[in-house]
Amino acid sequence: MLFIILVVGSAAYNLLMICAICISAIKAPEARRIKLYSVFMVTSFFGFFAYIWMFIVLSIVSKDVVDLWEAVITFLMFPLVVIIAFLAEKNFYASKKIDMEEEEQTLILTPPEHDENGSPRSFRKDELLQFLRDLGQTTNLSLEDKAQLFAAKLSETMHRSRMQYRIQGSRMLTGGKSLFLNLPDKLQEIYSEVSQRDILADRKASWTLKSIDEDHHSDLNEQYPTIEFSTTTYAVLECEQKIYERAIKPQPFDGCFPTDHELASRKPTLPKIDIIDDARVAILEFASSSYGVLEREQRVTIEVVRYGFTNSVIHFRLDTIDGTATAGEDYVKLSEEFKMERGQQEKRITIHVIDDNQWEPDETFFVKLSLPEGEETRAKLGSKTIALVTIINDDEPGFIEFEESITLVKESIGKAEIKLVRSNGADGRVSVHYRTKDIDAVATKDYEPAQSEIIFEHGEISKIIAISIMNDLEAEKDESFAVELYDPTGGAQLGKHIKTVVTIINDDDYKTMANRMASLVQVDMDKLSVTKTSWGQQFRDAMNVNGGDLETAKFGHYIGHALAFFWKVLFALVPPTAIAGGWLTFFVSLLFIALLTAIVGDVAAIFGCLVGLKDSITAISFVALGTSLPDTFASMIAAKNSKTADDAIGNVTGSNSVNVFLGLGLPWLIAASYWESKNLPFTVKAGDLSFSVLVFSVCCILSMSVLILRRYFSVFGKAELGGPVIPKYVCSIFFIFLWIGYLTLSGLQAYGHIKWQS
């Protein structure tokens, strides 16, 4: 009976106190919304129903007895919850809706790179180079320091499971090694500056200074969060190569290479159609991966082309996806199916653009090409399945600038391609002059000097400047030259980036530096892994403060380490996950958990006797608090570090249902089966369970109502966690009062001050 009351008390603490901490843990005015709301509703329902079911089993159907069929149903509800939640995550119960974040990840999905030993890396070299470019050349850092900074960036952005947040919560309590990379103060300061620079760059990419003042900009960001795409996604959508790829891939060459030359087998960099073996299957794709339309033209025509087999009727589907343009405000949403007749090789579809007669920055949306169900046998999709449409502000000639302020190229590249962009208007024919200037690279020796004019026709928004690079086949240091813009015509103006620095990197030195730094980064990332440790490493981490990283250890780490030293060394006996595929870790961990639970229960009972508390009150207060501390820290860390509230809140609602269906269901099933074989009933005293479940149910309904209201009312920031200062603290205090009320009412009932007939 005591264990059942403990389960209810732990659920109350999880739902009320952990939610209170998570709501107030996020710095104002930041907020976290639940992304997978259907999963939240499923786990919330079962987190509530589990305790109603427990009451039904023990107090109504067969009082104080758990029959075998009841134990079976209780246990089977655990996989049922998992399956229903999984289907909800996959949007099985609703009409299919395109998930923008998932779409972005799909668009930039690339196979993992491997190091020289063949082991997969947790990052790509082009990401490393982009970070170095963002870091700049002003910081006097060693290669090891730069590797640590990049590893910290990866650690901050990588996806983490709820189990990892729980491990991190436990290690915070005990002064153990963090799963997050902690930087020394000097590097942390530099990292914060780089991060702040990235935030400002993202804002500039989404807003133009002429459009609204800074205060209004801030208000809009707080109240109306919008979807913003990374530059990586845009680059993929426009079929462009990232900076690193442009640096290492030579340009097409008109001559012929010997058959034994390493470039003789190089594939061309131009887009191509993959030819499939079945001659009766057609290939569909967009004619172009990007389109531009002047706002006043009020329509843009998208062309879908067919290759291969044409003697069939083909159906395909087009769906528009918001980028910075919004359906209904900037264009008319398209989501329908189209048909190509026999022999038809192209199909033009018109999408209507809304001309609101108001100046605004250039805006974009996407069009996705897909095949309806059953069409895969007659057609396949080509490489251009996503088209970027740019709605161009046509009231201005626009601003002309370089897309990047720094360009890295290898000496053997042949030609350096530098992109010019025309933004915030594309009205009329305009031009701009450009010229090269030496920095430490010498014209005619290291590169071909250039001075010319680039012309943008009406509606044209990008141009490429090609500068020839000389390969002298001599080992030398990196050299740079500048390309600058001047004298725009046709009413156009120069933008912010009127100068770009082109750095010519020595091939061999670059490869050595990149490979060495990539190895250092991978070493830093492996240190954060919980699956790549040996038994000896476990003991070293357990016996040292902060896992041996004393440079970043705080005073709290030393206190936690001193208090938990015995337990850390004891649990280091658990075999590492590298042995037997992790199964040995799993079963030995269960044994240690059972041992620890027994010890905690006995210590709590002794403590209750010493202070004069009944076992039921000790269970729902001190024991529930102790067993839920890892969950508390796990949810708090998830709330602060995750972009959504799913991990923080899901950790609560999910564990509350699992505690009953698995935590009680499995022991009930084993015990009920045993007593059934003896033809005896399995007795479980319900005691005051009905009163405890009633109070918990009221608190559960009130708390869930508050979370739902927070999602839909702007006074709370339209988010479950965080938001404006006063409302978030009011909600947290309300949740704390609910928990205190639960303890108070349970205590009054336990000591007979509230009469309750079970």
UniProtKB/TrEMBL annotation:
Q: Per the database record, which ranges form the Calx-beta domain?
A: 271-370, 387-486
Look up the domain of life of the source.
Eukaryota
**SUPFAM superfamilies per the record?**
CalX-like (SSF141072)
- Tell me one GO molecular function of this protein: calcium:sodium antiporter activity
Classification via InterPro entries: CaCA, CalX-like_sf, Calx_beta, Na_Ca_Ex, NaCa_Exmemb, NCX_ion-bd_dom_sf
Q: Which reactions are catalysed by this chain?
A: Ca(2+)(in) + 3 Na(+)(out) = Ca(2+)(out) + 3 Na(+)(in)
Q: Transmembrane stretches, by residue range?
A: 6-26, 38-62, 68-88, 565-584, 590-613, 658-677, 689-713, 725-745
Q: How does it sit in the membrane?
A: Multi-pass membrane protein
Q: Which SMART domains match?
A: Calx_beta (SM00237)
The answer to whether UniProt assigns keyword Ribosomal protein to this entry is no
Q: Which Pfam families match?
A: Calx-beta, Na_Ca_ex
**Gene Ontology CC annotation, any one:** axon
Entry keyword Transport: yes
Cellular location of this protein? Answer: Cell membrane
Which keywords fit this entry according to its UniProt record?
A: Antiport, Calcium, Calcium transport, Calmodulin-binding, Cell membrane, Glycoprotein, Ion transport, Membrane, Metal-binding, Repeat, Signal, Sodium, Sodium transport, Transmembrane, Transmembrane helix, Transport
Kindly state a single biological-process term from the GO annotations of this entry. calcium ion import across plasma membrane
Family stated for the protein in its record:
Belongs to the Ca(2+):cation antiporter (CaCA) (TC 2.A.19) family. SLC8 subfamily.
What is this protein identified as? Calx-beta domain-containing protein
The species this protein was found in: Rotaria magnacalcarata
The upper taxonomy is:
Eukaryota, Metazoa, Spiralia, Gnathifera, Rotifera
